[in-house]
Amino acid sequence: MHPRTAWHRVLVTAVVAFLVIAAVLYAASVFLAPADGRNTAGLFVGWAMFAVLGAIAAGIVDFFVRPLGGRSGDADVMAAAEEARTGSTRVQQGRAGAR
Predict the structure, then answer these.
(1) Looking at CB atoms within 10 Å, which of 5, 23, 36, 37 has the fewest?
(2) CA distances (Å), 51 to each of 38, 63, 71, 88, in order?
(3) From CA 82, how far away is CA 55, in angstroms rounded?
(4) Which residues contact 48 (CB under 8 A, 6 or more apart)?
């Protein structure tokens, strides 16, 4: 596996984890607001906002780290799928190209 692909997977996992943490903290703020008051709810909402900002930051970094095109190994996967489907990886030309 290429280092860029590994970093991409780590960053996507971080984004998902931050979003899950944000959802849990927000739900906790809703459940704790009637029992413990507004200060506790505000504290949890504040931490949820930091988790959302962390997800956004990880997503921005991932945008610049993620592998692009054939450099990521996607081309190899697509060629293997094409070979399994048709038995060949050659690109077929249209009628105008074949004479």
Answers:
(1) 37
(2) 20, 18, 31, 47
(3) 36
(4) 21, 22, 23, 25, 26, 29
Which residue type occupies 99?
Answer: R
Q: Positive or negative CA dihedral for 71, 73, 74, 80?
A: positive
Structure tokens belonging to residue 1:
């596996």
Distance, in Å, from the CA atom of 7 to the CA atom of 49, rounded to the nearest integer, reads: 24
Retrieve residue 92's tokens: 């077929």
CA 49/CA 41 separation, integer angstroms: 12
